TrEMBL record:
Name listed for the protein in its UniProt record: Trehalose 6-phosphate phosphatase
Key word Repeat present: no
Catalytic activity: alpha,alpha-trehalose 6-phosphate + H2O = alpha,alpha-trehalose + phosphate
GO MF terms, alphabetically ordered: trehalose-phosphatase activity
Keywords: Hydrolase, Stress response
The protein's role, per its UniProt record: Removes the phosphate from trehalose 6-phosphate to produce free trehalose. Trehalose accumulation in plant may improve abiotic stress tolerance.
Cofactor(s) this protein cannot do without: a divalent metal cation
EC number: 3.1.3.12
Length: 356
């Protein structure tokens, strides 16, 4: 008990990672170690070598908590914009996608961060669903991996004219941008076909994310994985304008357009009037493959903090890491606290550099 509390204390202070013992206790990220939820295995040699691998991976992806002071020192005078993924980042990975709730503490932390910096959530879920989970009004939302964006209504220029079909909401406060609109009827047909096709595979479920569809296999028996994949692919072959992607125990079908979470990040920066500023520092926190597109954009811009949430080593373009959503919570709290202490005498519009 003492060990656990001490580790928790250190973690909250950002001094060190959760110990392996804690990893096993929590055991709720099935995607990485594929344990049963809340299982409690003893620490084994394998776990010790997992820790060694993780530690060496962290040399290239240091903890955003232990690096926090340096990161903020480098961020001084820059305009921070915060981007957050939802599943696996703000909420832990759970078996039932409809029950991936975010904790009240996390909600409060995101609310505080959004008071300090422009903040957007970019999720694979439908925009309405992720907004339903997050329940905050002071942030922007993008659903369907960025294909459904609600952003400030600033007219956006783009060199190749790719930003169009923007419509204002009823109050004219926000604008909806949906680059995959024309694929909606076909997407709905695919959804219906998938629902029928997976009906007989125990545990398989289809989730309507509006401009994309998820086929979950977290609760499918391993021997049925092949059959499920075959069914999905045999539907998809009749829809050449759509492609298949993979996430954490999930297949995702989406229109084959060149638009991803990275484009969504740039779109938000443009609509915030920050697209061409050289002193904008995007902070993006995400855990899944589709977040890599946003990490790449930040790397290309040359300024910003791509942070991956990972409890085991993975191939990533992120520069920093956080172990799990509880470390994300700690990071967000520290970020808001840092801003408040460093800008107590400045107005928010000065801090953001945009009209609030
Ligand atoms: O971009 P995100 O917000 O991370 O969305 C990606 C997918 O997240 C959800 O699935 C994942 O989380 C579920 C709940 O914890 C879990 O059961 C599932 O196995 C994970 O893949 C969401 O349900 C998907 O639709 C999103 O595409």
């Amino acid at each position: 008990m003492f060990k656990r509390n001490f580790a928790k204390f250190n973690q909250a202070m950002g001094f060190q990672r959760s110990s392996n013992w804690q990893k096993v206790q929590h055991g709720n990220d099935l995607s990485t170690n594929e344990r049963a939820p809340n299982s409690c295995h003893p620490v084994t040699n394998e776990a010790v070598s997992d820790d060694a691998n993780y530690s060496s991976w962290m040399v290239d992806h240091p903890s955003a908590l232990t690096s926090f002071d340096q990161m903020m020192k480098d961020a001084k005078g820059k305009k921070i914009v915060v981007f957050l993924d939802y599943d696996g980042t703000l909420s832990p990975i759970v078996n039932d996608p409809d029950r991936a709730f975010m904790s009240p503490e996390m909600r409060a932390a995101v609310r505080e961060v959004a008071k300090c910096f422009p903040t957007a959530i970019i999720s694979g879920r439908s925009r309405d669903k992720v907004k339903g989970f997050v329940q905050l009004n002071n942030i922007y939302y993008a659903g369907s991996h960025g294909m459904d964006i609600m952003a400030p209504p600033r007219p956006v220029r783009s060199s190749d004219g790719k930003y169009h079909t923007v419509s204002l909401d009823r109050k004219g406060n926000e604008a909806v941008f949906q680059p995959a609109q024309k694929f909606l009827p076909a997407m709905q047909k695919i959804l219906k076909e998938l629902e029928v096709a997976v009906r007989k595979i125990p545990g398989a479920r289809v989730e309507n994310n509006r401009f994309c569809v998820s086929i979950h296999f977290r609760q499918v028996r391993q021997e049925d994985y092949g059959m499920l994949e075959e069914k999905v692919k045999s539907i998809l072959k009749h829809y050449p304008d759509f492609r298949l992607g993979w996430g954490k125990k999930v297949m995702e079908i989406r229109p084959s357009i060149e638009w991803d979470k990275g484009n969504a990040l740039e779109y938000f920066l443009d609509t915030l009037g920050l697209g061409n500023c050289t002193d904008v520092l995007p902070v993006y926190i995400g855990d899944d493959r589709t977040d890599e597109d946003a990490f790449k954009v930040i790397r290309k811009r040359g300024l910003g903090y791509p942070i991956v949430v990972a409890s085991s080593p993975k191939d990533t373009k992120a520069s920093y890491s956080l172990y799990d959503p509880s470390e994300v919570l700690t990071f967000l709290l520290r970020l808001a606290r840092w801003r408040k202490s460093s800008s107590s005498s400045r107005s928010l519009s000065q801090v953001w550099g945009v009209s609030s």
